Amino acid sequence: MSLLLTLLLSGIVACCGHPGDSVPRLLLVSFDGFRADYLETYHLPHLQEFIEDGVLVKQVTNAFITKTFPNHYSIVTGLYEESHGIVANDMYDADTKKTFSQFNDSDPFWWNEAVPIWVTNQQQGNGTSAAAMWPGTDVKINNATPHFFMKYNFSVKFQERVEKIVTWLNSSDPVVNFATLYWEEPDVSGHKYGPNDTENMRKVLEKVDNHVGYLKSKLKASGLWDSINVIITSDHGMATCSPKKLIVLDGCIDRSNYVLIDKSPVAAVLPKKNKKYVYNLLKKCGNHMKVYLKEEIPERFHYRHNKRIQPIILVADEGWTIVQNESLLKLGDHGYDNALPSMHPFLAARGPAFHRGYKQSTINNVDIYPMMCHILGLTPQPHNGTFSNTKCLLTDQWCINLPEAIGIVIGVLMVLTTFTCIIIISKNRVAPPRPFSRLQLQSDDDDPLIG
Ligand SMILES: *[C@@H]1O[C@H](CO)[C@@H](O)[C@H](O)[C@H]1NC(C)=O
Ligand SMILES: *[C@@H]1O[C@H](CO)[C@@H](O)[C@H](O)[C@H]1NC(C)=O
Ligand SMILES: *[C@@H]1O[C@H](CO)[C@@H](O)[C@H](O)[C@H]1NC(C)=O
Ligand SMILES: *[C@@H]1O[C@H](CO)[C@@H](O)[C@H](O)[C@H]1NC(C)=O
Ligand SMILES: *[C@@H]1O[C@H](CO)[C@@H](O)[C@H](O)[C@H]1NC(C)=O
Ligand SMILES: *[C@@H]1O[C@H](CO)[C@@H](O)[C@H](O)[C@H]1NC(C)=O
Ligand SMILES: *[C@@H]1O[C@H](CO)[C@@H](O)[C@H](O)[C@H]1NC(C)=O
Ligand SMILES: [Zn+2]
């Protein structure tokens, strides 16, 4: 009987469609700078259809600083920035004198403090990884790149990236079970026009929405659409900036006193000699930014314990820009406090691992990593996420939402109270008080083995 069942099951697996169909597959997509509320402001039919068919997390709390490289790495490692080591888009390491920027990001030195999911997938799993771009995917991290990857090049069209990733996902030798896809918009337009320019933002978001439609059509055409899990998310949002909201450092402190490692809206300041002197001058530089010594950075930012975080950090208020003497070129920016709703992206997901039509208000972006590991059957590396935050999104998890949980707790308390009352009442009836019970208890407490 059980033999028959096994034969039947293996028959089902073997007959239908792709080689390796039994392996769960996951495609992780990022549209850079897609602020959560764009979904409500604009008419985006392909994304809406995707969401109705799957799950939506309305706001994702990302990691501080709310910049591109750090947050893309938090998503794929589940670590805060201080723990994965990509603490900014521009970094300087004092010991090695190395510098990192988005144009010079290929030294494994910067990435090796963590192991991203595409590497773990290839080490632990039975499949391989592929990447149509994503920060870090063209770098040898822990001595490995994804089996298939593209060198980062912003000139490569979205369609070309999709064609590559779908071909790779369709490969049977080797099987690709994890893949990433990255696109620069709506971030580029958000910086250029500012997120409040609804005319221009509508145009770019309609294009992004068409890209989602294109991705879906390609996955359908290759027969992957019904079996693949797709996550669409982003790294951060966007705030409106203004030439009237400038913090001009040259007005407060001479440049000879410090090096500016990272600029705005979170500036990383390396003092040349007297740290306290630099700090005191910066403190008097208007009241639209916070000035922190590294050791004063608020706990909630989880942005302290890494030597790549510079001795003084300036955090501009929302919409303000830190400059030395430049004029403002950007009408939108991000990087600000990760508690600000304007800095939050969304997350949508669809596929056999996800419920249909479920919406949740929030998760942290470090929670995405343990969820992805769960879907792929991987044992996660140490991380800062909480798997249970994503349980309600997943079909194979038992999940209770808050109102239900409160109901159950009240119910249990009522039953317990009733029970206790019954016991007390019945005890009082049958058992008369024993005069020596207290004494016995005390002598028990004096067990010499415990002290
Ligand atoms: C890129 O960074 C590496 C160190 O990570 C450094 O050795 C190299 O000089 C940098 N290249 C440029 C063009 O700045
Ligand atoms: C890899 O394949 C083996 C044997 O089929 C299976 O037991 C194991 O669970 C698979 N591992 C993953 C991570 O899928
Ligand atoms: C980047 O992509 C464009 C468009 O495909 C191509 O013309 C260009 O040569 C590529 N640049 C590099 C450095 O590969
Ligand atoms: C941006 O637009 C929103 C909604 O119209 C408005 O509430 C907000 O004040 C605007 N922000 C700026 C900085 O202009
Ligand atoms: C995907 O693979 C299947 C079988 O392996 C093949 O029939 C199909 O043409 C492929 N599709 C694409 C878009 O490459
Ligand atoms: C900014 O400062 C630099 C260096 O001191 C100087 O060369 C440049 O002219 C200044 N620019 C403006 C707009 O003041
Ligand atoms: C984040 O996770 C790393 C790795 O487990 C750990 O070292 C670090 O202390 C964690 N950070 C926090 C704030 O818990
Ligand atoms: Zn970004």
Automatic annotation (TrEMBL):
Membrane topology per record: Single-pass type I membrane protein
CDD domains: Enpp (cd16018)
Entry's EC annotation: 3.6.1.29
Signal peptide positions (record): 1-17
Entry keyword set: Blood coagulation, Cell membrane, Disulfide bond, Glycoprotein, Hemostasis, Hydrolase, Membrane, Metal-binding, Signal, Transmembrane, Transmembrane helix, Zinc
Record's catalysed reaction(s): P(1),P(3)-bis(5'-adenosyl) triphosphate + H2O = AMP + ADP + 2 H(+)
Known role: Hydrolyzes extracellular Ap3A into AMP and ADP, and Ap4A into AMP and ATP. Ap3A and Ap4A are diadenosine polyphosphates thought to induce proliferation of vascular smooth muscle cells. Acts as a procoagulant, mediating platelet aggregation at the site of nascent thrombus via release of ADP from Ap3A and activation of ADP receptors.
Protein family: Belongs to the nucleotide pyrophosphatase/phosphodiesterase family.
Name of the protein in question: bis(5'-adenosyl)-triphosphatase
